[in-house]
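Anyone else keep sequences and structure tokens together like this?

Example one:
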Amino acid sequence: MIESTEFFRGTLTERRRDMLVANTRTKRAGTVDDAADLVGFLAGPGTGHLTGQAIHLNGGAHLGR
């Protein structure tokens, strides 16, 4: 869950938000800056050999395989 976006279109209740945050390993909601930092990393020179990845930006709520 990334807060400060229109994803939930005003339908996210406080109870649902608390549950989503509790399910993360970081115990916090994601931010737009978290997403921007990931994009910056992926666009950087250190990822020149990275291909075909699914990256889960969710604070550990869902772990990849």
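And example two:
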Amino acid sequence: MLTTHLIQIDSAWEDRAANHAKARRLVAEANPQPGSLIILPETFSTGFSTNLPVTAEPEGGATERMLRELAAEHQSCVIGGVVTQAPDGRGMNQALAIAPDGRVLARYTKNYPFSATGEDKAHAAGTQVTVFEWQGLRIAPLICYDLRFPELARTAVRAGAEMLVYIAAWPVKRIQHWITLLQARAIENQAYVVGVNRCGTDPQFTYTGRSLVVDPHGVVIADAAEQERVISARVDPAIVQDWRVQFPALRDAGLLG
């Protein structure tokens, strides 16, 4: 069994120090047991800004160091969003997964920057998925708008994923899409799906959280509602594995042997 802790934060706009301090406090209040999975939203340290002089950091920068410190302090795996610098001068919207010993287990770059707000002009797109193992579960981190592209989730499952983790800054006016698509990705991939969204407001949008844990049958087993808070849920790798054997849809799709 793996315990997940979803950190639904109201990020202060372009204020890295304040958001790091708030994230540390929320995680400490959750009191995660060693071996947990702690998940923070997309661009949690600055909000969903494309002001690269403020948001972009080098690899190993302040947010990555903060995630490493959280992982070491709580002896858990931590996933969180960060913007790093792309070779072409743009940023890269990434999800980092950090082990308790400081190793980067995954560095995933958002494959689908959100063109409706011009994110694709500021952030270079990634080209592949990344899967890592933690506590017997194979996990693929993904980011926000990626949720709308089912083929990306399929690629992750083909690579072995049993849990899809979407970190996000998903606004209230499309929140029903968020809930429905998280459940759909769980059902069609026979996988746990975790969506960790921010709450609060920024100069562009209002966010109402609704961070969820969805089981492989599409059942919501944890829902953070709308306020800043942490929710926790236990997930069992055996449930994924057993369901995929009992109901062989992925095998029939040619995704599993």
